[in-house]
Amino acid sequence: MALQAVTFDYWNTLMRIPDTGMWARRIDAFADVLVAEGHDVSRDDLDGAFAAMQRLHEQAWLDNRQHGAAEAVADVLAAAGVDPAPGVVDQLVEITVTHGESSEVLPTDGIAEALAALDDAGLRIGIICDVGITGSPRLREHLRHHGLLRHFDHWSFSDEVGVYKPHAEIFRHALDGLGVDDPAAAAHVGDLRRTDAGGARAAGMTSVRYAGVWEDPDTHLPDADHLIAHHDELVALILG
After folding, report:
1. pTM of the model
2. Is there a contact between 125 and 113 (Cβ–Cβ < 8 Å)?
């Protein structure tokens, strides 16, 4: 491939979250705040409310409607039947946006070496990420903590661009930010067929599906142009 740039999905491509109980601690933090404010809500109530919120979040993602921290908090509170004061809501949104210690979020195997090799070869490197309920500033902080942010020339996070993959706008945002006029001169690496492979293909980019963390169950959808199980394979694919 004669490429000028490579973009990466974030979760399960650049970074992964081991089973360290981060989700449970988020729910615990909500419970602590609400109980301290005098609300009659149990941990079990919030567990169910968070599950309901997750379903709404996934549907919004499928519909390409932005669903960030503010929407997630509103959904949790509605499902739990709790109506706290605005200041408490703001506190819960802040907890949601900033939740998670960078030491608990780990780079995927071989990604540090792959990014360094691509960077040394002069390729421009970007991120195209569908942000969940943790905000993009926190996601950048995870990369900075692990010494990876310095490799990126540009990033396109959905909470900043305003759309999720596979919408053409977020891929165009990335290409423009990386200074790539011809999409055929760029590749996108991600773990999902619908958003990563499908979005990259529609944008005219080479698509690479990384299956080193997550094996996409949507096997009825078209696959990427290339499939890799480790980032060593990506370096060989891109640089030859």
Report:
1. 0.92
2. no
Exposure pattern of 189-225 as b/e (b: 16+ CB <10 Å)? bbbbbebbbbbbbebebbbbbbebeeebeeeeeeebb
* Per-residue pLDDT reduced to its tens digit, 7-53: 999 999 999 988 767 888 899 999 999 999 999 999 999 999 999 99
Calpha distance 234→115 (Å, rounded): 10
Residues 59-91: tens digit of each pLDDT = 999 999 999 999 999 999 999 999 999 999 999
Residue with tokens 């902080």: 141
In contact, 123 and 2? CB cutoff 8 Å: no
Nearest to 164 by CA among 191, 194, 209, 137: 194
Please give the DSSP secondary-structure letter assigned to residue 11: B
CB under 8 Å to 191, separation ≥6 — which residues?
A: 9, 11, 12, 13, 209, 210, 211, 213, 214, 216
In the numeric block, which tokens belong to residue 74?
């509103």
Q: Which residues pair with 227 in a beta bridge?
A: 209
